[in-house]
């Protein structure tokens, strides 16, 4: 009788092991699917950015991505809203159907976003009569 109980216990243990193994494999498969979906969305967003940005603006943004990831992320958040991500396939279909975008976002817009994020304010320099440079605000107050 104890032999029979021992076999049943082994059988139950094996069932539990298989159940845990299946749960682990399911979790791993789910993580892989999420990773693939995120990778796919990232590729689609890059495709849309490449389509809507002027070539020099896109390359400048890529340079920011490698040199200043935090600034890039802030610019990315300005350019790509959650609505864009939700409708990415629709946007790609429109871009492909129209053969591109008629007016692309220029480099100036990306530089403007970069300066805004970094908190850089523009300065207008004025040359005084003696050849010295000073900012316009100071020049006008004198």
Description:
The chain is mostly helical and 142 residues long. The protein has one domain. 77% of the residues lie in helices and 4% in strands. It has 7 helices and 2 strands. It has helices spanning 2-52, 55-67, 69-79, 82-86, 88-98, 107-118, 136-141; strands at residues 125-127, 133-135. A two-stranded antiparallel ribbon has the order 1-2. The radius of gyration is 29 Å and the shape is elongated. The termini are far apart. 4% of the residues are buried.
What is this structure, in a nutshell?
The chain is mainly alpha-helical and 142 residues long. It is built from seven helices and two strands. It has one domain.
Give the overall average pLDDT.
84
Number of helices: 7
How much of the sequence lies in strands comes to under 5%
Structural category is mainly alpha
Task: Give the helix level as a range of percent.
Answer: over 70%
Gross geometry:
elongated
Tally of discrete structural domains: 1
Strand line-up in the sheet with most strands: 1-2
In whole angstroms, the N-to-C terminal distance is 107 Å
Strand and helix order: HHHHHHEEH
- Uncertain regions spanning at least 5 consecutive residues: none
User: Radius of gyration, Cα only, in angstroms?
Assistant: 29 Å
């Amino acid at each position: 009788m104890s032999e029979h109980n021992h076999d049943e216990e082994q059988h139950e243990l094996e069932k539990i092991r298989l159940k845990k193994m299946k749960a682990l494999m399911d979790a791993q498969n789910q993580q892989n699917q999420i990773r693939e979906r995120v990778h796919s969305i990232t590729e689609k967003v890059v495709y849309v950015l490449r389509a809507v940005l002027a070539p020099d603006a896109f390359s400048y943004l890529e340079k920011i991505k490698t040199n200043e990831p935090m600034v890039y992320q802030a610019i990315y958040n300005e350019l790509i809203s959650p609505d864009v991500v939700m409708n990415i396939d629709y946007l790609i279909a429109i871009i492909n159907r129209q053969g591109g975008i008629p007016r692309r976002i220029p480099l100036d817009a990306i530089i403007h976003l970069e300066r805004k994020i970094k908190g850089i304010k523009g300065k207008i320099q004025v040359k005084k009569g003696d050849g010295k440079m000073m900012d316009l605000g100071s020049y006008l107050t004198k």
